[in-house]
Amino acid sequence: MASSSKKERGVKRRQVLQLFALAGAAGVLGVPLFGCDEAGMRVARRSQAMLGTVVNLTVYSRDREQAEAAVTATLARMAELEGRLSRFRGESEVGILNRTGTLEAAGDDLQDLLQLARRVSEASAGAFDVTMLPLLELYHRLADQPAVIAGEEGRAAIAAARRQVDFRGVRLEGGRVSLASGMAITLDGIAKGHIVDQGAATLAAHGCRQIYVEAGGDLLVKGGKPGRKPWRIGIRNPRPQIALPLPVISSDSLAVATSGDYYQPFSPDFRHHHIIDPRTGFSSPELAAVTVTAPTAALADALATASLALGAKQAADLLAAFPGCEGYFVSKELSVSQTAGFPV
């Protein structure tokens, strides 16, 4: 995911510590907590720092040992994937690809992600693009300098970075991946969702059917809760200092991802943030947040990223091209809209 600056690492560490404080009741530092619900099911919860955030697992089972083995295996699988897909690790598959421009034998997970990313890139006319790393790194260097970004020097630098961005420059032939000259990729807008999906698959492989897997707002639930109760998922207010009633999603099985201008802002007014439209080099001025529901967390993750860049109308058209996908949009002015099938 290339090496991050000391400042970025410090910010991430503080964010993780804050999230641990919030997640303490769910089991801290990988220590599982168990209890019984009213139906007599065992409830296993565990939280662990990973992916620059905190991963939270909830598993219902009648067998405590099964649940403990499942969550341990799941966290190991998710950590393994982070080690192979992170751009911040030089010896990861993505790190090697970015450094050398070629990866001779990409793993199945990277191949699957690149294929899905290509689908979303083509469907969104380039609003989603894994080769946007040069733009993202430029904005990190100019963080909290909106005047520079808007000025002549900044615009020239953005134009130069955009010339290194084009999803069509990623070539996947068999297991071999190569990049056009000067390109580098980031899977920030899709890998976390994929890792959530794989966490859920690991729990299922261990016989767990009623599960909740969440990482930094990307989540997947399956099986409902005991007593035929659905999972309830709140939508975050992008401006918590302003009252904004938002709906709660209720579902037995669903993947959900949210992209917002507040996650990594590069200016105090949220005008510039980490979701950058690769086609313009700037963040879209329309939306503050997008929540997408989808069959998989990877697809929800990618579509939420693209939707924030596109704006509500074009995003609704994009989601319509993917069966089972719906969206909820919050504008900068805090007006809300949603696709017809959004599950609230």
TrEMBL record:
EC number in record: 2.7.1.180
Cofactor (UniProt): Mg(2+); Mn(2+)
EC class name: transferase
Record Pfam families: ApbE
Residues holding Mg(2+): 189, 301, 305
Keywords attached to this entry: FAD, Flavoprotein, Magnesium, Metal-binding, Transferase
InterPro entries, sorted: ApbE, ApbE-like_sf
Cofactor-binding details, from the entry: Magnesium. Can also use manganese.
Keyword flag Flavoprotein: yes
Reactions this protein catalyses: L-threonyl-[protein] + FAD = FMN-L-threonyl-[protein] + AMP + H(+)
Molecular function terms from GO: metal ion binding; transferase activity
Gene3D superfamilies: ApbE-like domains (3.10.520.10)
SUPFAM superfamilies: ApbE-like
PANTHER family per UniProt: FAD:PROTEIN FMN TRANSFERASE (PTHR30040:SF2), THIAMINE BIOSYNTHESIS LIPOPROTEIN APBE (PTHR30040)
Family: Belongs to the ApbE family.
Name under which the protein is recorded: FAD:protein FMN transferase
